[in-house]
Each structure stands twice: as C-alpha cells, then as structure tokens.
Amino acid sequence: MLTIENLSATVADKPILNGLSLTVNAGEIHAIMGPNGAGKSTLSYVLGGRPGYEVTGGSVTFDGQDLLEMDAHERAAAGLFLGFQYPVEIPGVSNVQFLREALNSQRKARGQDPLSGGEFLKLAKDKAALLKLDMDMMKRNVNVGFSGGEKKRNEMVQMGILDPKFAVLDETDSGLDIDALKTVGEGINAIMRAPDKAVLLITHYQRLLDYVQPDYVHILAKGRIVKTGGPDLARRLEDEGYDEVMAA
C-alpha cells in the first residue's frame, strides 16, 4: 500500500531524512520509535504534504500513485489520514461542520454523493461513542478548550468519520491518561485494523502498543530505519533504551 524508497528531506535547509526506506502492506500496522530529533515527525509531515518540508531525493508510492506529486488535499481524498502530535485549535469553526465539509469534499473527489445533515450526524454519533467523546463536544469549536486527551480522542473520531485507507499517527499517545490511552488504542483497532487498511504509528513509548499490537516495530535514527523487529523490540527499548538496543 505504501512504499518509501531512499527518501531524503530537509527542513529549513537542514537534512532530516537520509535515505529512509519502508514498505507497509495492506492489513499491517507498523510502529516507528526513535530518539528525539530522529526524524519521526518529519516523516509524518512529508507523507501528509505539509509545506516547508522539502523532499530532496527518493520516492513514495501510495496505493499505486506517486504520493509526492499530489497536493495535501489530493492525498486526503486518496485515503491518507495524518494524525498530528499537537492537534490545532480552529476558533469559530464547529467540529460537526468542519468534519461534514471535510467528508463531503472527499466524497465529491471520489465521485460519491454527499451525506445529508441527518446521515452525517448519525455517523458522527456512532464514531464519537466509539471513542467515548460526548456529542456536546462535537458541537464545539474544533479542539478549542479541549484537554490534551480530548484533542487526541477528537482526532480519532475524525479518523473514524473520514474512514481512510492509510493512517499516519504521530505520537497519538502523548497527553493521554491511562483510561484515554486504552480508549484510543481500542478506537484505532476498531477503525483501522482491516485487511484493506494500514497504519504507521509513531510513538515514543511501548504503552500504546499494549493495545495496538503492531506487526512490525522499526527504530528510526538519524533519518533512517536502522532496525526492524516485532512487538518484542518495543519492549526491549522500554527496558534497555535506544543506545543499548542499537549498539547490540
């Protein structure tokens, strides 16, 4: 589904990604871990098409298409979802209206009919219940006044409504307490664990992986994937740290 070959990228003329290669097949969940400054968030922003991240080499193919030739909205319409490490607040725009416009814009790009207000509200209620997010919060301005955990759960509701093929989740576990961590983990499984979907889950800690069991765990360091293993690799990192595991 996603093939990255020798990807290099800079931010403000500083090299961050240095020949990164990775393949994620449909039906798989891959976790990426790594020390601060390794390039994890840069990878997510490059895949999402965020301005200011310049690709200087390599290629990315998504579902048979050249991802790097697509604008951000085209990537979203093709089925790519980016979950931010720090979800932004959008004052003056209600959650419900924002998500209905986003979903119907994507449906239009795919040649599908838009959802009516009633159809959308039913969908939104179902997905909000899955993430234990009160519908009153769905009617508030996007993320305004939300706690860190509420912002992350709200973002998972967005993912459920948009129903992407591929989700790139950048430190979705940051800011979550124990209960919210379990809820978000169960939500990721319910929404994205399917034979025709895939997830790239970026995290610092093994704790989320207790709920979202990945097929592969990768260590990203100095802009490249330097080691790949199974879920046991994440547990080793938790116990021993990056330096010890990478030295071994």
TrEMBL record:
Q: Would I find Flavoprotein among this entry's keywords?
A: no
A single GO molecular function, which one?
Answer: ATP hydrolysis activity
Q: Pfam families in the record, alphabetically?
A: ABC_tran
Q: Where is the ABC transporter domain?
A: 2-247
Which UniProt keywords are present, listed alphabetically?
A: ATP-binding, Nucleotide-binding
Question: Does the keyword Nucleotide-binding belong to this entry?
Answer: yes
Stored NCBIfam families: sufC (TIGR01978)
UniProt similarity note: Belongs to the ABC transporter superfamily. Ycf16 family.
Q: What is this protein called?
A: Cysteine desulfurase
Q: Which organism is it from?
A: Aurantiacibacter luteus
